[in-house]
Write a structure and sequence with these properties.
The structure is a homodimer of 211-residue chains. With 211 residues, the first copy, chain A, is an alpha+beta fold. Chain A has 4 helices and 11 strands. Chain A has a domain at 16-115 and 152-166: Electron Transport, Fmn-binding Protein, Chain A (Pnp Oxidase, Chain A, Roll), CATH 2.30.110.10. The first copy, chain A, has helices at residues 23-31, 69-74, 117-131, 144-149, and strands at 19-20, 35-42, 45-56, 59-65, 79-91, 99-109, 112-113, 150-156, 160-165, 183-191, 195-196. In chain A, strands 1, 2, 3, 4, 5, 6, 7, 8, 9 and 10 form a 10-stranded antiparallel β-sheet that branches. Chain A is globular and about 65 Å long. Chains A and B meet through strand 2, strand 3, strand 5, strand 6 and helix 3 of A and strand 2, strand 3, strand 5, strand 6 and helix 3 of B. Strand 11 (195-196) of chain A pairs antiparallel with strand 10 (183-191) of chain B, so a sheet runs across the interface.
């Protein structure tokens, strides 16, 4: 896969050894999540809104209502989309070295409106399949009115970077015999028992892909 | 608890029925998480960085290295701190009504540097206790040098709002008999088996508070 040079904006500055810029790493992190944080500038001040997203090839998509002010504003200036997965609580023997394991991606750029109806439907198809694989073909088909009510923007991954921490705590050498528990408590997002709507219990419940 | 009026910036505009502004709701959502998304403006463009946070009373704290450019920049202008928990994938009978259940809080304001050493130590104590309850007293005590190397900022919750979706999918009435599975698949962050560092296995592993 391509290894992209980091732009000046996406280069990981703090603890650069945690930075990664290859497309495979970035795609895997993006494909493990559903919710991103979208940063915009409103009246000169930053605003961060959670939104659903999905990736296809070298871009991510966001969607919302056709009259979404946020999505319109996104396409008129720069945006930053950040995705973060918490993987573990890292408990050192000193407060100072406590940390977390995580995977994150930041994407900066200018989103583009998807106006072509066929691309919109294809993108929504990909979104539903991301939420629950093999689901699209089971649904009541999408209507032209619904497509018209849905706004979709795509954001290229050209300027993106990943930041990852893995592994155990890194204690000061003099603390290694300090008498307390130290290590990592992994945390994971897991799917619970599906809660069917009345009348749909006889159909097979979907299996989510959370990783 | 207080019910605060929403400011013009924190009022939930899209689907206002999902908005909440009372301090108890906001505190509970904040206390259920570890990682926030911090939005700033850099050279006129938005930047969103994941950071650890913790809440005490009517403020959240962020921390980092004493030479963190981000934390310094935060205190020189407005910032937006957003926390989001994904609670479920909401699968409707039409693509259009797919959604997610979630809890989120957005806080806007100007962070303030915590310069007093006693307040810094007290805040770090609270942070470690948030990561793992009852842990602080078991640790190698914090040093003055470590306190000096740690930068902490606090952000008041004065301008904050919550947005929450719960419950089942809301299908069009005509779709209620469409032959497919519909409902909610809950998702939860769960703690895995603690992974102790060599030499610390004999001490009691911490129990995390993920909710």
């Amino acid at each position: 896969m391509d290894v992209k040079p980091a732009s000046d904006r996406t280069r990981v500055r703090r603890l650069p050894k945690r930075g990664a810029y290859d497309a495979t790493t970035i795609a895997r992190i993006l494909d493990a999540g559903f919710v991103c944080s979208v940063g915009t500038v409103r009246d000169g001040a930053p605003m961060v809104i959670p939104m659903l997203y999905w990736r296809e090839d070298d871009r991510v998509y966001l969607h919302g209502s056709q009259d979404s002010r946020l999505l319109s504003a996104l396409c008129e200036s720069e945006a930053c989309v950040t995705v973060t997965h918490l993987d573990g609580i890292v408990l050192a023997r000193s407060a100072f070295h406590h940390s977390v394991n995580y995977r994150s991606v930041a994407i900066v750029g200018r989103p583009e409106l998807v106006s072509d109806a066929a691309e919109k439907e294809r993108a929504l198809h990909a979104f539903v399949e991301r939420l629950a694989p093999h689901r699209w073909k089971t649904l009541r088909p999408v209507t032209q009115k619904e497509l018209a009510l849905t706004k979709i923007v795509r954001m290229p991954l050209d300027e993106s970077s990943a930041k990852v921490r893995t592994g155990p705590p890194v204690d000061d050498p003099g603390d290694l015999t300090w008498p307390c528990w130290a290590g990592v408590v992994p945390v994971t997002l897991v799917a619970g028992k599906p809660l069917p709507e009345s009348g749909s219990e006889s159909f097979e419940a979907p299996t989510l892909s959370l990783e």
